[in-house]
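Readers outside the structure-tokenisation community will struggle with the description of the input data as it stands. I therefore recommend that a typical entry be quoted early in the introduction. An entry of this sort, consisting of the sequence and the corresponding backbone structure tokens, reads as follows:
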Amino acid sequence: MRLGVFVQAPGHHVGGWRHPDAVTTGWPNLGLMQHIANTAERAKFDMFFLGDGFATGYGEHPSTIGKFEPLTLLAALAMTTSKLGLAATGSTTYGEPYHLARAFASLDHISGGRAGWNVVTTAYSKSSAVFGRQHPPHAERYAMAEEFVEACRLLWDTWDDDAFIGDKQAGKFVKPGSLHVPDFHGKYFTVVGGLNVPRAPQGHPVLIQAGSSGPGQALAARIADVVFTAQNDLDEALAFYKALKAQVADFGRKPDEVLVMPGVMPVVGRTEAEAQATFAELNACIDTAQAFTVLSERLGMDMRPYPMEGPVPTPPETEHLKSRSMLLMEMARRDRLTLRELYYRVAAARGHLLLVGTPVRIADVIERWFEAGAADGFNVMPPFFPGQFDAFADQVVPILQERGVFRRDYAGKTLRDHLGLQRR
């Protein structure tokens, strides 16, 4: 299986930052990021994965209020790692193809072929205020994203692999005929002119896509190498996996060219009692205002007026996190959750698979999902850093290695090598 660590420091759990073992000093903390990356590489993880967002404020999730710009951070981490894939979110709604293509090509060179781009359309309309523009509707954002990626691919192919020859004798720095200038005219973006970065070691960085709505799945089937999804039920995960792979085939691609990696939040304890105690401690640290902000944003309506012990109210159609709202409502109906129970689940894992238990129990579940064909791997989302990630790397990963479902060492150098993907 493939493993990534989804880094939202100080932790994914809304209350994770308040845990005594969570590092919150010296924020934003480069040393913590280096520790996480080094731990991931020691455990032979495929990649270090950074989400991103633009909004800040008192009510936001602690991991989003103040943080490094992702590509700047990954370039720094490339200097202290040698094999670990380095992936980050880049918005196709609030960005330009040239800037993102140039940045990810540069990161791929700096890291020796370890760059990955999480292609996102940016769900929250509050981001639009930062850029002084109207937030596009859901379907239009995905149309923009497809066009954006097409333009980036043309830019990455500006130069042949062997273009830069530096022939001093002949006085030729680049090989004649090796330049292919894009002439792209789309509905949303126009790119006329080449990229002033030599072709990257991977050709194209690994493309990751995290949308699970209808348009999101269609985009993933067309352009993605990796799909990051939220699933919390094995049968539903199997259905998603099968449907997505079928869409991949419908677009003329091989199903094994696209890897499905759901998120998983593991709360690791040496005993079941210790794991449950850690989880209870995390839940006791929840800030009500922040938890309601997270829940309300993912459901698309303000949940504060509704009774906590009552059923979860049906949210309206939203232009933001369509797939996540649907996922949470399906979970609430399936498990007959009250609003309070859903509140706690979202504060913890935001709809992703939540596992609380011993290393053996956690390994059992993710191995079962993998062997059943519900996932090609997982993005691990620790409730707080670094302690819970260290526990997963040191206690769960060796069990997976002993069972022969996870590598004991890297077989290649690039992120595409690790993921078993062809160079583009």
